[in-house]
Every structure is written in C-alpha cells, then in structure tokens.
Design brief:
The protein is mainly alpha-helical. Helix content is 55%, strand content 6%.
C-alpha cells in the first residue's frame, strides 16, 4: 500500500470572485463499521494512498484520485471517494486482549450514558451521574479487594500459615513459620506487607493503562468553538464543544480511583494488624497507632468520595484545565498512608499467629450492600427523569441505565468470586487445610445456577417466539417475491434470517429479566451469608438441613461454573493475544462498548470516538472550506454513529455542505432505545433539521441496522421505503444467473439503491456556499 503523509488538498474550483463554478467537486467520505475494513476493500482498488492520518486511524484514497480536486475538467462517474479507517483504535495489537479484564468498568460507564431524556431537571440529571460514578468507585474497590483476598488472605495468611498447604506450594516456604524455622518473613504482619505488593501493583497497572490510553487515543482536541450557554432548548449534547474532550474529568477520576485502590490495600493490612493489637495479646502503643492510622485512612477515603461526587462532565466548553495539585497529591497521599500501613504491620508482634480468615470478611458484604442500594436509588432517579419526558421507544421505560449498572456490579462480583474460588481450590488440594474465601463469595457462587436457569428459560421463550415469527414470515417472503416457482428451502432461509434479526429488539427484555434476577438473588446471597453461622431452632432443624444441603449443592455447582467461566475467560484472552482473528472479535465488542467517553470510570477501555469524531470533523470542515464542494459522509453500522456524531460537531455553515448517508445503522434501533437522552427521537429529529439532507437504508434481514423513525414533518423522509430487498433476487435471473446471497448486515453497496440515493443526496446539496453563521434546511 502506498502512503503519502499529510497530503495537502488544493482546489481550483473557485472563480476569482469567490463563487463556485459548475464543476465544483463532490466527495464521498466512507466510514466502516464494526469489525473493520481495509482501504482496498472500501475503495474497491488495490492501489490506495494515505492522504492524512497515522498508523492508528487515517483517510485513504485511490492512487488515481490523489489530486482529483485539481482536475475539475476530468469526466468522473460519481464523486471522489475517501475511506476513513479506524479499526486499529479498537482491534490493533495484542495488548487489547487485556481489556477483557476491564469489562465491568466498561459496562458501568455505559450506564452513565443511558439516562432518560429530561428537560429542566438539571439537578436530577447530575444526581444520576453522581450515583453512577459512585457505583464505578465501588467496582474499583471490589476489584482491589479481591486481589487483596487472593494475595493477603488466601496465600500469605491462610496457606503460608498452614503447614500442609505450604508444603504443597514450596514457593511459599520462606513465608511459612513451620518450614522456614520462624524466619524474618514468616511473621504474619511481614507476610501481609510483602503480599500487599500484588494488589498495589494491580492498582498501579490500572493507573498506567488509563494514563497511557488517554495520551494515545483521547488526547485529540476537537475543532475550536465558542462556549455555549447551559440552557439551549433542544440542543443535542453530542454537538457541544467539549463533549468529545473529557480530559479534566478523566484525570480527576483517575486520581480518585487510584487513591481508592491504594487505600483498600492499606486498609486490608492495617485492619488485620490493628485487630490483633486491640486484643488481649496486643500492645497499647501499637493499638493507639493503629487507631490513628485507621482514622487517617477513613479521612482520605472521605476526600476520595468527595472528589468523585464534586464534579461531573463539562460539555459546553473545551475544558483544557487540569486540577494538577489534586491529581498529583491524592494518589501520593494514599501511597504514603500505604507505606505507613506496611511499616505498621511489619512491626514485631510476639504471639501473633495466622488462623482462620483475615478479619476483613464483612468488607465484601458491605460493598455488595452499597452496590445494591446505589442501583435501587439509580432506578428511582431514572424513573423520575423518564416521567418528565416519556419516550415509548426507550429501553425498559428508561430503566436501562440501572439495569446495566446492576449487570456491571454482577460482573465484578463474578470475576472477584471466580478468581478467589479458583485460587482457593488451587492452594487447598485436600479442601480441608485452609478456611477458603469469604462466606459471601461462596454464597454468590450458589446463586449462579439459579440465574442460569432463569436466563435459559427466557432464551427458550425467545426461541419459541422467533419460531412462530418465522412461520408468519414465510407468507411475507412469498408476497415480496411474486411470480415464479417457489423453493421451500430458499423461502425458509429468508424467513429464518428475518425472524432471527428481530432478536435484537428483545434485548431490553433479556437485560431486564437478568438484572432483576441478579438483584434478587444477590440479596438472597447477602441474607444467606449473614445467617450461615446462626444455629437454627429445633423446630426448624429439618427444614434448615434441607436448605443447607440444597445450598451446598448449589454452591458446589456455582463454584464449578465460576471456575469454568474463569478458565474460558483466561483462555479467550490468551488466544486473542496470539490470534489476530480472535483479537478482531474482541475488537468488535469494544467498537460497541467504548464509543462513549469515560465519564463514570477512568479505568474503562479508552473511548475511540474521542479520536475518530475529531478526525472526521476536521476532515469534513477543512475539505469543504478549501474546495467549497459538496460532501456525502457515508457510514455503515457503527460508522453511521460516528458520522452522525461528527455532523453534530460541525458549524451550521459547514453542515450545509454535508449530506448524511447511513446504512445498516443502529442509530435508532440500538442507540436511540438504550441512550434516549443522546439519540432519542428529539435528538435525531434535530439532526435531520440541521444537516442539509439525510437518507437511511436498511433491510429486514439486518440484525443491527434499522429505520431511524424520524418524522417527515421537518423535511423529506429519511428512511428508504420500502426496506431494501435481501436477497436482491429470489431465484436465478439473467442479471443474477447464480443464486443471490442473503447479505443481512453487510455489503449495502451491492444494492443499486445505494448509488441512486448517493446521487440524489449530492443533487440536493445547494450550489452556493451559504454565508457564515447561517442555519436551517435547504429549500430543496
């Protein structure tokens, strides 16, 4: 592939008077969707040139079109074509496989953007964002606490303190009092201090990944624009100057979450040592020192929570300022307290021996309780927002955000419980030498079989509904392809594809049932963990024995399932690190999940749109300014979402030279339903008014794309009606002598309607450059 760095596009299309000649250029800017594409595939030519960009994301042209603007007299068929390739933002090198570990953070970040549409409820909207940020903070604490459970409790405290376990794992021999003859490292406090390096390293790794990905992906500044007032009716937030540049908030949240992780490690070490110091064998000076250290930890934890609560996103202006003192001092303060905690725990304490579990079991129960309360409060706030501006198409009647936040907490619990259970089983070969993980994590494993039964029952119901829909589609296929002899197998395949494509619309039901069941079963696990050690009355002994036996069976099965899931998770990540095709599959997940900026969790995978949207905006604005020509931005699948977001960022005068062509687009079907505040009916209608013209192509066989359902009151219809035929021909014809494939979500350009709609869009663009600052639709 030939490459030309930063090719300067020039044009002679303008006359000396500044008016456009009749030969003004036309450009089609292609944006691919999930899974990525090569410029050769997008442009249909093996010889392509990089016009602008780098190895991460770039704009390409055919070699023959490099200087097409300077040759207006050439006879061309169709517009100049450019391809924006952004797949390396999400599915590039093997380190992307590590992002699987950040899945709960990504999911809770999505919950922030799923709030319902609301007007004149600023405080309620801010409170919604606050609750999601607090839920994200609990996930960071949970992940680090799970690392502490594995390293400090299971390995350093229980296994190293038990001769039978230490003998099976000789690498722990220098920490075992029985095997190392009471060496310096075998003291319980020093073992804990050494093991604390593992969760500390995890926290530092998360901080490093967040900082590094910001500098590589999200540091691209949008086009400079004036700050906008807070109160502007019907203004989409995606068009605000600072929407795609959340540098200040990410830096604050990164500092707060890093400090929270370090404080969690410090608390795990301090509480264990202070618990012994306050006992009968403890030392009064050390006990007082432990109280002071615990007070300092609680004080700094309060500051962390305050920082998370204090500030949300700033979208009305390009906020380039950083709270440098806060960003630097908060993690350093937590690191200093951690160092003091390690010194405090490492102090010699005669008579301190490790037995049972560390006294930190209630921490997991407290985290689970706080997460449940936050999700319930979030559901109440979301319901209040939805009532102010009801949207009948919104997923779960506006409760999509709380449901997704619940799933994020459940993912965090399953990952932490799975790691703890697997490590415990690995260390404890006999199952009797160590106490194992906290009781709550065991009870969380017990609810997994019940949750799977609920999900499988729901999937069976959806499968039955799809089968019934397939039967009704058989008649519809016959009507859509009249004449000729029908092939039952061909008709059945088309009908099945159409029926399967509708499963996407049942996503809200699946999420609603799963999240509700997770909340109820999680509450049951909390109650079960709380009552485990209680002795039942005689009248209830028989019933208690039955419940206890059922719980043990469910716990064993759940533990096995968690272990299997953890193994599959690690195997998938390892395969993705080595296999490019598997890595691309993971990239598709991030294409959908990391479109949004990191507003709730700084350790989530990076937002590729904070690089892609400015790229597209700069390209469209500079080309139309330099040439005065017409531009069609053509987006497929996720590329249509990027195209719409970039169109929102253009100034009104620039937007009047741009037409929007979307196909296989999830703008309304997925984004409009799950993110109603940003892609709901009001936002899409506003976009239809602001761009000069917009057409959307879709198929009934497409499981992702669909109509955008914009009202025709504000201009011509957006959706192509009827939907595109798929396949193009039912049987063999002179034009298609071989059977036409069922394309579904791919290859929309193969339909003749694609070229026809593109030419209509170019013809609709006004032949004059509107004056700067103009707005409104064209009269065409």
């Amino acid at each position: 592939m030939e490459r030309v760095q930063e090719h300067a596009v020039t044009s002679e299309a303008k006359s000396p008077a500044g008016r456009l000649d009749q030969t003004e250029p036309a450009l089609e800017l292609l944006v691919h969707g999930v899974g990525g594409a090569t410029p050769e595939e997008m442009l249909g030519d093996p010889r392509t040139v990089r016009i602008t960009g780098d190895d991460t994301a770039a704009v390409f042209r055919r070699t023959a079109d490099v200087d097409a603007e300077s040759r207006p007299a050439d006879q061309r068929e169709g517009p100049i074509r450019e391809a924006y390739v952004w797949c390396n933002l999400t599915s590039g090198n093997g380190t992307r496989a590590l992002w699987l570990l950040l899945l709960p953070f990504m999911v809770v970040n999505l919950a922030h953007w799923m709030r319902p549409t609301a007007r004149d409820r600023k405080r309620t909207v801010r409170f919604y964002g606050l609750l999601v940020r607090l839920a994200g903070l609990t996930l960071t604490v949970l992940l680090v606490a799970a690392a502490c459970e594995v390293a400090l409790d299971l390995a350093a405290w229980q296994c190293a303190g038990t001769r039978a376990c230490a003998e099976r794992h000789t690498w722990l021999g220098f920490l075992s009092p029985a095997m190392s003859h009471d060496s310096w490292w075998s003291r319980p406090g020093r073992r804990l201090a050494l093991a604390a390096l593992v969760p500390t390293a995890l926290t530092v790794l998360l901080w490093y990944l967040s900082r590094r990905t910001w500098s590589e992906y999200e540091s691209q500044q949008p086009m400079p624009r004036r700050a906008e007032p807070d109160d502007e009716p019907d203004r989409s937030s995606l068009g605000r100057p600072g929407f795609w540049y959340g540098r200040r908030l990410v830096a604050r949240l990164r500092a707060a979450h890093t400090a929270a992780g370090l404080l969690t490690v410090a608390a795990a070490v301090t509480v264990s040592a202070a618990h012994f110091d306050r006992g009968p064998d403890g030392s009064d000076p050390l006990a007082r020192l432990g109280v002071l250290l615990e007070t300092a930890l609680a004080g700094l934890a309060f500051v962390v929570v305050y920082v998370v609560c204090r500030r949300g996103r700033s979208e009305n202006r390009l906020d380039q300022a950083l709270d440098r003192r806060l960003v630097r001092r908060l993690p350093l303060g937590a690191l200093l307290l951690l160092a003091l905690a390690l010194l405090y725990a490492g102090w010699s304490r005669p008579g301190w021996e490790s037995s049972g579990r560390l006294p930190g079991d209630p921490a997991f129960g407290g985290i689970a309780l706080v997460q449940g309360l936050l999700v319930i409060a979030l559901a109440v706030v979301a319901h209040l927002l939805h009532r102010t501006h009801p949207d009948p198409r919104a997923a779960m009647h506006g409760l999509g955000g709380p449901a997704v936040a619940m799933l994020a907490c459940a993912l965090g619990g399953v990952m932490s419980g799975g790691v703890s259970q697997r490590v415990s089983d690995w260390l404890d070969g006999t199952g009797t030498s160590i106490a194992g993980p906290p009781v709550l994590l065991t009870w969380q494993a017990s609810v997994i079989p019940a949750l799977l039964i609920v999900v499988l029952a729901l999937c069976a119901g959806l499968g039955h509904r799809t089968w019934r829909l397939r039967r009704s589609e058989l008649a519809a296929v016959a009507r859509d392809y009249p004449g000729g002899r029908k092939d039952r197998a061909r008709t059945a395949r088309i009908a099945s594809t159409r029926a399967m494509a509708t499963l996407t619309d049942r996503g809200p039901l699946l999420v609603a049932v799963t999240s509700t069941a997770t909340l109820l079963l999680g509450a049951g696990a909390l109650v079960g963990a709380f009552t485990t050690d209680r002795t039942p009355s005689r009248a209830g002994e028989e019933g208690h024995a039955f419940v206890h036996g059922a719980a043990q069976t469910s716990q064993g099965l759940g533990s096995w399932l968690i272990g299997l899931g953890f193994i599959l998770f690690v195997t998938w990540g390892r395969r993705a690190y080595k296999d490019a095709s598997a890595r691309r599959t993971i990239g598709i997940l991030w294409d959908v999940g990391t479109f949004w900026p990191r507003a709730a969790h700084p350790f989530a995978p990076p937002c590729y749109a904070e690089r892609a949207v400015p790229d597209l905006t700069w390209r469209m604005a500079t080309w139309t300014r330099a040439t005065g020509g017409r531009l069609v931005i053509s987006g497929h699948s996720q590329g249509s979402v990027l195209a719409a977001a970039a169109a929102w960022q253009l100034k009104p005068a620039q937007r009047k030279r741009v037409a929007l062509l979307t196909y296989g687009s999830p703008l309304e079907r997925l984004y409009g339903r799950w993110f109603p505040a940003h892609f709901g009916p009001a936002a899409l209608t506003r976009l239809h008014r602001e761009v000069d013209c917009w057409r959307n192509l879709y198929r009934l066989t497409d499981p992702i794309g669909g109509p955008v359902r914009v009202s025709a009151d504000c201009g011509p219809e957006v959706d192509h009606e009827p939907p595109l035929k798929d396949p193009l021909e039912y049987g063999r014809t002179a034009r298609h002598p071989l059977p036409a494939p069922i394309l579904g979500h791919s290859d929309y350009q193969a339909d003749p309607a694609f070229a026809e709609e593109r030419e209509r869009l170019l013809a609709r663009l006004r032949p004059e450059v509107p004056p700067q600052g103009s707005s409104g639709r064209s009269s065409a």
